[in-house]
Write a structure and sequence with these properties.
17 strands; 14% strand; binds thiamine diphosphate; binds 1-deoxy-D-xylulose-5-phosphate; binds magnesium ion; Transketolase_BS; metal-binding; EC 2.2.1.7
Length: 645
C-alpha cells in the first residue's frame, strides 16, 4: 500500500470517474488497487461499515470499470455491501467519510445516489434477475449494452438466484440476453458458508476437478470452434473453460475459476467475455479481507465493524456493554433448549447477527443454518413442526418479508407452532431503509392464527419468547437492534398472561367528556413504551403496555376508551395497518367513538443515520410524543415550548 505522507493516494486522487480509470495503462492498475484498498480500510475504520467484503472486491471492481463502458454497460452488485471500491471509483471517493451517516452516502448501491448504481440492492440474490432484465431490455430496444451481475457465493445459495439462471439461460422469443454473471467466490457468507452448493464450489476449485474437467473438455471440444475459445482463455487468462458444470447445464458459458486478485487474469478474461454473445458465467476466486491481515484471519469479525484503529484492530470492550436484545434472545434460546429437547433453531445465514453462536456451539445437532434462504427456512420449520418439534426461526424482520407466502401458506394456515424471533424490528440505523423492520406488525397481524408479541424491554422479551414457545400456534416476538431500557434480566421463565396488556401509569386528571382538557391514555406497543412513559409524566397521561398486537387486549382497549377522552397509540412499526390500526378496528367494532392519535413510523422510507436522532426527527422520542399529543389534543400554544425543549 502507498506510504507517501504528502499524498497517500497519488493515483486515486486523480480518479474522479471510471473514464479516468480507463485512461490508465494496465501496469498502473496494481497501484490503483493498493490505493483503493488503503482508502477502504482508512474510511471504514473511521465510519464503521462492511469491511471484509470490500477488501475482497478491489481488483474485480477496477477490472470491471476498466473493461466495461460504465455506466452505459450495467453493473449490478448483489447485496451491494461490497461496493465501496465501486463508490470510490465512481465519484464518491471523498464522500466515503460520510458513509452510512445521516445525509451521507449509503452503504449500498442506490439509483438516486449515482448513475453508476444501476440497481438498488441490500437484500441478497436479486442481481441476476435484475441484470437479466436489463440485458433483455437492451435486446428489445436494439441497444448493444452489456449487463453484469456480481454475486457472492453466499448470495448464490438463494433460490431466487437459481430462478434467474433458469430464466436467463434460455432464449425468449428467439432472444438471449447478453448477461454476464460473475460468481465472486470467497468461500464465505457472513459466517462460514453452508450447504451442498458450497461443497460444489469447493470441488470446482479443487485441482483434481479442474484437471479432469479440463482434459475432458479438450477431448470433447477438440475439433470445434469452442476448443479454440477454451485454448485462448487458458493461454491468456489462466482461466479455463469447463463444460458440464451446473452453470453450463443452465445454458451459460462457464469460465474459471480465476484469481480475482490478479488483474492480469481479470482484465483479459473480462475483455474476452465482454465480446461474447449470450449468457456468460465467470467464476472468480477472492479472499474476504484481502490485504488487511486481521480481516483475512477473521473475516467474520471484520464483516461489519464499528469504528476501530486499523493499527490495533478491533479490541474487546473494556467494560461489558449492556446486553442487547439479540443477546437476550441468544441466552433464552440456550436456556430453553436445555429445558425442552424438542426445540430446534433455524437461521437463514445470520448466526452472528441473530445471537446464535453459543447455541450453535452447545447444540450443534439442533442448529440449522440454511443459507440465504428465508423462504426455505420458514417452510423447513413448518415441516419440523408437523413432526412435533418446536422450531424457532431467528430472522430479521426485514428478511421475513422474503418468506411471506410460506408464513401464510405453510405455517399459519396449518396453525403450526413455529416461533419467529424477529430481530431488527423498527429502524436499524446505518443500514437504512432496506434493512428497517417496519412492516412486520402490519403484515403478520392480518394472518389468521398468527399471534404478534411486542415486548417493551429485555426482561419482557425473555418472557415473550417463553410465552411464544409455549403457545400452540405461530407466533412472532419482535425486538429492535441494540439494547433497550430494561435492567437486570430475570433468569426464571415466567409466561406473560396471554393476550393481556398491563397498566403502567394512571392519569390523575378527571375525564372531561369534551368540556376541558381531555384525559389521555397512551397505548404503547413495544420499546416505545419508555419514551411514552416519559412524555406521559409531562402530559399527565395514562399509559398501557399493550404487549400483544395480536391477540389484542380488547377489554383493556374498551376500559381505556370508557375512562379517557382521547387515546394515543404508539409503535416502532409502520402506522398503516399496524398495532394502532388494530386498536382503531377494535374501537370501531365495540362501538366507541373518541379521538385517537396514531403514532409510529410514517408512510415514507427513513434513510440511514443514528437511530436515536432519526427517532427524534420523526417525533418518536419523549419530546416528540409530548409535542404530538399536545398539538392534537391539548393546548396548541404549548407546542412551541415543547418543540424548543
Ligand atoms: C435476503 C437477505 N438475507 C440475508 C442478508 C444478510 N446478508 C448480507 S451479506 C450476507 C452474506 C453474503 O455472502 P456473499 O454473497 O458470499 O458475500 P460476502 O459477504 O462473502 O462478500 C448476508 C447473509 C441479506 N442481505 N439479504
Ligand atoms: C449486508 C447485510 O445485510 C448485513 O451484513 C447487515 O448489514 C447486517 O446488519 P447488522 O449489523 O444489523 O447485523
Ligand atoms: Mg462470499
Amino acid at each position: 500500500m502507498s506510504d507517501s505522507p504528502a499524498n497517500p493516494l497519488p493515483l486515486l486522487s486523480s480518479i474522479d470517474s471510471p473514464a479516468d480509470v480507463r485512461r490508465l495503462s494496465r501496469s498502473q492498475l496494481p497501484q490503483l488497487a493498493d490505493e483503493v484498498r488503503s482508502h477502504v480500510l482508512d474510511s471504514v475504520s473511521k465510519t464503521g461499515g462492511h469491511l471484509s467484503s470490500n477488501l475482497g472486491t478491489v481488483e474485480l471492481t477496477i477490472a470491471l470499470h476498466y473493461v466495461y463502458d460504465t455506466p452505459r454497460d450495467r453493473l449490478v452488485w448483489d447485496v451491494g455491501h461490497q461496493t465501496y471500491p465501486h463508490k470510490i471509483l465512481t465519484g464518491r471517493r471523498d464522500a466515503m467519510s460520510t458513509l452510512r451517516q445521516q445525509g451521507g452516502i449509503s452503504g449500498f448501491p442506490r439509483r438516486d445516489e449515482s448513475e453508476y448504481d444501476t440497481f438498488g440492492t441490500a437484500h441478497s440474490s436479486t442481481s441476476i434477475s435484475a441484470a437479466h432484465g436489463m440485458a433483455m431490455a437492451a435486446r428489445i430496444k436494439g441497444e448493444s449494452r452489456r449487463a453484469v451481475a456480481i454475486i457472492g457465493d453466499g448470495a448464490m445459495t438463494a433460490g431466487m438466484a437459481f430462478e434467474a439462471l433458469n430464466n436467463a439461460g434460455v432464449a425468449h422469443g428467439g432472444l438471449l440476453g447478453d448477461v454476464l454473471v460473475i460468481l465472486n467466490d470467497n468461500d464465505m457468507s457472513i459466517s462460514p458458508p453452508v450447504g451442498a452448493l458450497n461443497k460444489y464450489f469447493t470441488r470446482l476449485m479443487s485441482g483434481k476437478f479442474y484437471a479432469a474437467a479440463r482434459e475432458g473438455a479438450k477431448s470433447v471440444l477438440k475439433h470445434t470452434p469452442l476448443y479454440e475459445f477454451a485454448r485462448r482463455f487458458e493461454e491468456h487468462t489462466k482461466g479455463m473453460f469447463v463444460p458440464g458444470t451446473i452453470f453450463e447445464e443452465f445454458g451459460f458459458n462457464y469460465v474459471g475459476p480465476i484469481d480475482g486478485h490478479d488483474l492480469d487474469s481479470l482484465v483479459p478474461t473480462l475483455e474476452n467475455l465482454r465480446d461474447k454473445k449470450g449468457p456468460q458465467f465467470l467464476h472468480v476466486v477472492t479472499r474476504k479481507g484481502q490485504g488487511y491481515k486481521l480481516a483475512e484471519a477473521d473475516p467474520v469479525k471484520y464483516h461489519g465493524p464499528t469504528p476501530f484503529n486499523p493499527a490495533e484492530g478491533i479490541k474487546p470492550a473494556t467494560t461489558p456493554p449492556k446486553k442487547t436484545f439479540t443477546q437476550v434472545f441468544g441466552d433464552w434460546l440456550c436456556d430453553m433448549a436445555e429445558a425442552d429437547p424438542k426445540l430446534v433453531a433455524i437461521t437463514p445465514a445470520m448466526r452472528e447477527g441473530s445471537g446464535m453462536v453459543e447455541f450453535h456451539k452447545r447444540f450443534p445437532t439442533r442448529y440449522y443454518d440454511v443459507g440465504i434462504a428465508e423462504q426455505h427456512a420458514v417452510t423447513f420449520a413448518a415441516g419440523l413442526a408437523c413432526e412435533g418439534l418446536k422450531p424457532v426461526v431467528a430472522i430479521y424482520s426485514t428478511f421475513l418479508q422474503r418468506g411471506y407466502d410460506q408464513l401464510i401458506h405453510d405455517v399459519a394456515l396449518q396453525n403450526l407452532p413455529v416461533l419467529f424471533a424477529l430481530d431488527r424490528a423498527g429502524l436499524v440505523g446505518a443500514d437504512g431503509a432496506t434493512h428497517a423492520g417496519n412492516y412486520d406488525i402490519a403484515f403478520t397481524r392480518c394472518i389468521p392464527n398468527m399471534s404478534v408479541l411486542t415486548p417493551a424491554d429485555e426482561n419482557e422479551c425473555r418472557r415473550a419468547l417463553y410465552t411464544g414457545h409455549l403457545h400452540n400456534g405461530p407466533v412472532t416476538v419482535r425486538y429492535p437492534r441494540g439494547a433497550g431500557a430494561g435492567e437486570a434480566i430475570a433468569k426464571e421463565m415466567v409466561a406473560l398472561p396471554w393476550g393481556k396488556g398491563e397498566m403502567r401509569r394512571h392519569s390523575a386528571q378527571p375525564q372531561t367528556h369534551g368540556r376541558g382538557a381531555p384525559r389521555v391514555a397512551i397505548l404503547a406497543f413495544g420499546t416505545l413504551l419508555y419514551p411514552a412513559l416519559k412524555a406521559a409524566e409531562a402530559l399527565d397521561a395514562s399509559v398501557a403496555n399493550m404487549r400483544f398486537a395480536k391477540p389484542l387486549d380488547t377489554e383493556l382497549v374498551a376500559e381505556l376508551a370508557r375512562t379517557h377522552d382521547a387515546l394515543v397509540t404508539i409503535e416502532d412499526g409502520c402506522i398503516m395497518g399496524g398495532a394502532g390500526s388494530a386498536v382503531m378496528e377494535s374501537l370501531q367494532a365495540q362501538g366507541f367513538n373518541l379521538p385517537v392519535l396514531q403514532l409510529g413510523l410514517p408512510d415514507t422510507y427513513v434513510e440511514h443515520g443514528e437511530p436515536g436522532k432519526l427517532m427524534s426527527q420523526i417525533g418518536l422520542d419523549a419530546a416528540g410524543i409530548e409535542r404530538s399529543v399536545r398539538q392534537r389534543f391539548l393546548n396548541v400554544a404549548e407546542v412551541r415550548a415543547v418543540a424548543n425543549k
